[in-house]
Fold this protein.
Amino acid sequence: MLHKMSVENHYQRIGGEISIRHLVRRFYERMDELPEAYGIRKMHGADLAGVEEKFVKFLSGWMGGPQLYIEQYGHPMLRFRHLPFSIGMDERDQWLMCMDMALTEVVQDSVLCRELSDAFAKVADHMRNRAENSSVYTEAVSA
């Protein structure tokens, strides 16, 4: 008799929308609380409710769940949508610091926590659009 292996995606493993909402809430709370995150916090408006909701919808699909962001806004085009913001190593590191803290608080499974942290690091690095020691955008737009 053949046994089907159940392979859960990140969306299922984290606990679905409820856990993603908790992760996003903690991420933005950290951004608000930590002076070290000032560089990325100032890129956002005073009210984070709208961006939080968009991030929940994006993460739902990114983690293998319902494609809520795509259904409402179309393809995320992350790099393109972040081009108006000058993002270098410091901004990337600030973002990852807040996300890693939120992951550690919300995700109980250490393997899943590491997998998500690694995946977020790749995305955050891809968002960089500024040459270091410069306020001039790189030619990464063509990347």
About this structure: Residues 15-130 form a domain with the Globin-like fold (CATH 1.10.490.10).
